[in-house]
Specification:
Layout lengths: L14 E3 L6 E3 L4 H32 L3 H24 L2 H4 L5 H23 L7 H18 L10 E3 L5 H10 L4 H14 L5 E3 L8 H20 L6 H24 L7
Antiparallel strand pairs: 1-2, 3-4
Helix pairs in contact: 1-2, 1-4, 2-4, 2-8, 4-5, 4-6, 5-7, 6-8, 8-9
């Protein structure tokens, strides 16, 4: 999940001076440059594969296979977590400026993080079928679309402004916990409203503040979700606590961040 606003790109041709005739000649493409382009194309291919995984997850939901859908959503999350650092490492925006990785990332994220989880919540009765369930799913879709269009979605130190629409983590967690309908609806409405505020949520990898804790709790959350999906969905105190450790830390870190900035407005 890159979530960085694109910056204007100026590509200057490199040149070298001819020591004999003092004529400036533009460098011809080198093997390294060709290699860079190939690597960047492969990174774009990795990013685009996320939409295919999202489509498979949607098909699993429609086919009534919640376990397969959850595992595919986790795979999409892994792809999203890997492609961003690679894109920055190889400066893909400069090497292949024709395609905007930021926009590509947002398009895919909306499908895998919002649309598929919303269908999952309805298909597997995470939310009750009725007006309350319809309203909660609608709020997920609308507020997430608005959040994805924000021009100020991230602070300079890599904290998201507003809940960042990671429903691909929230909805499977509610399903694995077999949460009552009212709990699911309250959670969805609360997070949807938070997405429209300036309450800050840490980027799990890029935020330097509490980085070890962020990565540790997020890893625990994902791994527990995978294990419970594959092995056993039945609720046990230990597994429930492990599954809730990640959300609990997100809540604590958000509150601590809020206490550090008491004068910052919520909306």
């Amino acid at each position: 999940m890159q979530r960085h606003s694109p910056q204007p790109i100026v590509v200057a041709a490199r040149s070298k001076s001819c020591s004999v005739c003092s004529v400036s000649a533009v460098n011809t493409p080198t093997r390294l440059a060709v290699s860079d382009v190939s690597v960047c194309r492969a990174i774009h291919g990795l990013t685009v594969s996320g939409i295919l995984v999202g489509m498979l997850a949607l098909m699993a939901v429609l086919d009534g296979s919640p376990r397969a859908a959850v595992l595919l959503l986790v795979l999409a999350q892994v792809i999203d977590g890997v492609d961003g650092p690679l894109a920055r490492r190889f400066d893909i925006a400069t090497v292949i400026p024709k395609y905007d990785g930021y926009i590509l990332d947002l398009v895919i994220d909306y499908v895998t993080c919002v649309l598929v989880p919303a269908v999952f919540a309805w298909q597997f009765v995470v939310v009750p079928h009725g007006v309350s369930g319809e309203v909660s799913v609608a709020l997920m879709l609308i507020t997430s679309a608005m959040w994805f269009s924000r021009t100020d979605m991230m602070t300079d130190d890599h904290w998201f402004r507003g809940f960042p629409g990671v429903w691909n983590m929230v909805i499977p967690t509610l399903w694995l916990l077999d949460a009552p309908g009212w709990v699911a609806i309250t959670t969805i409405i609360g997070l949807s409203l938070l997405s429209m505020t300036d309450v800050e949520f840490a980027h799990p990898v890029q935020a330097r503040q509490w980085r070890r804790q962020n990565i540790g709790f997020m890893t625990t959350w994902v791994l527990t979700m995978v294990v419970l999906t594959i092995v056993d969905r039945e609720r046990h105190l230990v597994t429930s606590l492990l599954l809730l450790a990640g959300p609990a830390w997100v809540t604590v870190s958000t509150l601590l961040r809020r206490l550090e900035r008491p004068r910052a407005p919520i909306v």
